[in-house]
Design brief:
10 helices; 6 strands
Length: 268
């Protein structure tokens, strides 16, 4: 399904309205020819979460409405290559599949807003099978990690400078960091933090499926998956994208009813 949509997206991005400026990679707000997920994000939230964050930075949040492309040319067209790569590395991943749908809807929205007819689109022909390669692209990042084919292994170890003490702590009590971000034996639950008087309102579903905790060894605040039996946790502020991706694609302790609620929330 994604392959057909990506072929369609490639055609639309190559044919974006001429009213949009063509910008070189050095000036493009998109520049998908040099797409590279942040290494620190990969370590913290896994590769899919890092890709999702980077896509939001370049394409904007979808909560405020459909994506709207503001330029055209190779740096924009290379989005197809990015989505093609990661949807193949993580087949059936809900977050990545939604980016394909939203990018396609955004391209259609851009044509509509500029009152430009969509390029003809019919049954994919043989030459369209190579369409993702026609959206001019360079290698997808100089620090590209190993190709991933196992969706269960999202938190991929990335070569970095040794962090000394932090490196030692990853083996606390015999724990070896793999799919779990932090040793669960080093965590203790705490009372949920009070709601702030300003800023964004609290997301009820997000707080229902997570629990506030902290690392005993460092005292740093974390939050963990609230599903019984799950040991996954994260640092920083609660982020719906990383939590919902975990529950939909990784967690083996979430029931079907909760999955339906999350799927509905992510498609809103």
């Amino acid at each position: 399904m994604s392959e057909h949509k990506l072929q369609q997206l490639a055609k639309y991005l190559r044919g974006l309205p001429s009213a949009l400026a063509i910008k070189p990679s050095s000036e493009s707000r998109y520049n998908f020819k040099n797409f590279e997920p942040d290494v620190d994000w990969i370590e913290d939230i896994g590769l899919v979460g890092a890709v999702n964050q980077q896509l939001e930075i370049r394409l904007g949040t979808r909560a405020d409405g459909p994506i709207e492309f503001t330029e055209r040319g190779p740096p924009v067209e290379a989005l197809v290559n990015v989505l093609d790569r990661y949807t193949k590395d993580f087949p059936n991943n809900v977050l990545l599949e939604k980016w394909v749908d939203d990018a396609l809807a955004g391209a259609i929205h851009t044509f509509s807003k500029l009152e430009t007819p969509l390029p003809d689109w019919g049954v994919p022909s043989a030459d369209m099978a190579d369409s993702t390669r026609h959206a001019e692209s360079a290698p997808l990042g100089r620090k590209r990690g190993p190709s991933l084919t196992n969706t269960a292994s999202e938190s991929v170890p990335v070569a970095k400078k040794s962090k000394g003490k932090a490196a030692i702590q990853t083996k606390l009590s015999g724990f070896v960091k793999s799919d779990i971000n932090h040793n669960p034996d080093d965590l203790i639950d705490i009372d949920s933090e009070p709601e702030s008087k300003g800023g964004r309102p609290r997301t009820t579903l997000l707080h229902d499926v997570t629990r506030s905790c902290k690392a005993i060894s460092s005292g740093k605040m974390r939050y963990r998956c609230a599903m019984d039996g799950c040991q996954q946790s994260w640092s920083g502020r609660r982020q719906a994208s990383r939590v919902y991706n975990h529950l939909l694609n990784e967690c083996h302790h979430v029931d079907s009813e909760m999955k339906q609620k999350i799927a509905k929330a992510t498609s809103a």
